[in-house]
Amino acid sequence: MAAARRFGATRRATTALIAGAIGVLAPLGALPAHAQSAADGYFAKPPPVDESKLIPDERKPDKPYKPSKGCVQRSTLGQNIVLKNRPWGQDYLQISKAQEIVKAATGSVGGGIRVAVIDTGVTRHPWFQDRLKSGGEYVATPSKGQPPGLEDCDGHGTEVAGIIAAKPDNPEVGFIGVAPDSTIVSYRQLSENYEPDTQTSAPPASSTGGTPSSSTSPPPGSSSSAPPPGGGGGSGEGDGTSPGQSNGGRQLEKAGTAGTLKTLAEIIRGIADRGEADVINMSVDNCRTADGSITTGEQQVQAAVHYAASKNIVIVAAAGNVTDTCPQNDQPDANKPKTIVTPPWFADDVLSVGAIEEQAGSVAPFSVHGPWVGVAAPGTKITSLDPAEGSDGLANLTFENGDKATEIQGTSFAAPYVAGLAALVKAKFSNLDSKGIINRIKETAQHPAAPGGRDNFIGYGVIDPVAALTQVLPSEVGNQAPVPAPQLAQLPPANDRSPTPVIVALAGTGGGVVALLITLFVMHTIRRNRPAEPDPRR
Question: Catalytic amino acids?
């Protein structure tokens, strides 16, 4: 028996030691992406910020560029519809109700908040009123004496900016920007309608940027000229524009186009240094194969967004669109993605936005998945400002390949919904810093049914502007749950009768049960100890 007891004690001690060893050694096994070392490679999470890669803003293109295609023009598609109804995304997100909440609290809908749009530039449009400002030019000297950043040859940046801050003067138009009283600060950083000019020397330094360009029309012999312009009516017609916008994406460092990670990093740094914006929207990105490394350009952007975030700027970026050169992250292990998208990769400082489609609000098939996705917003069947020069209407179609009219879509147009919401939150909760604003948007999103309320498709969920502007968050009140107001309880009168009779009755019943049990025990013992009687048959 003693040996058995010793064996049991030894077995328990051995089990405890094994469990402790497992607890100690478990972290030394397969590491999650967020804990990978440099030897393992950088996949789902990048390496720590290298602050030595923070570069100054030279306020000019990184190299000379020249026009390669015709700029966007107004085009009659034969499907002109006066857009009296609100776009589905506005109804889905209850944008009008969110705007009423902010206006009641502040007197305007995002007034005084500056949103930097780093994109293909933003064309002047009557529905921006006087709230469109010049930020900088990093492609080429604008034609016709336009201020830096206020020419949009591609049409992309104007549509992005319209979702943020357009304010129609036509009461019959249902479309409106998310923060229609906010100010847009435009930076033209890339263009797919420009290409490197190998016959021109490097552009001179300039306080506003720019390199000489004789014309924005297509060069002789160009095979990508735009269709001829049509009417430019201002009735809010749903005309398209050209050239096309494949899934709404604008890729940095794409061969034969203007725009690099280096100039993106410069602009972000310059905005932070000069205090030019409260929110940055980047519907541009660079997509590459995940190989466990980080490039110099990526390090520069990483350092820039970290620097800008430390200056209390909310940074929003499109999650990226699936293309032939940017495959979907559909591998079994989400922590080992096939594709890396920058700037979304730097999720510690960037709120990246995936796209949902109209049908049931499900994730759009073109929206790139990844552990860095923060939230999601509408990204299909987009309506926004017509970006053609001189237009005062809307566009809800675009040309693909120069001749095929298609709907405007992409994560590029989901991001400005979130940037606009960030402007509203900033206006209403002026005491929140950039991290607090991002946290509020994430915590109030419509969380997916996934562990921790987050997945790699829509992040923490589709944004909920009304909740973001009204909900009380425990994280903002010292991690204490909100204390409810006292309520008067509607209870029956108290029973003041003496409890003594009940106590006596229960005590008597209990005593009787105990006595019965004792009696049964005694009788059972007597029967067991009684000697056996002789068999009378013997």
Answer: 119, 156, 412
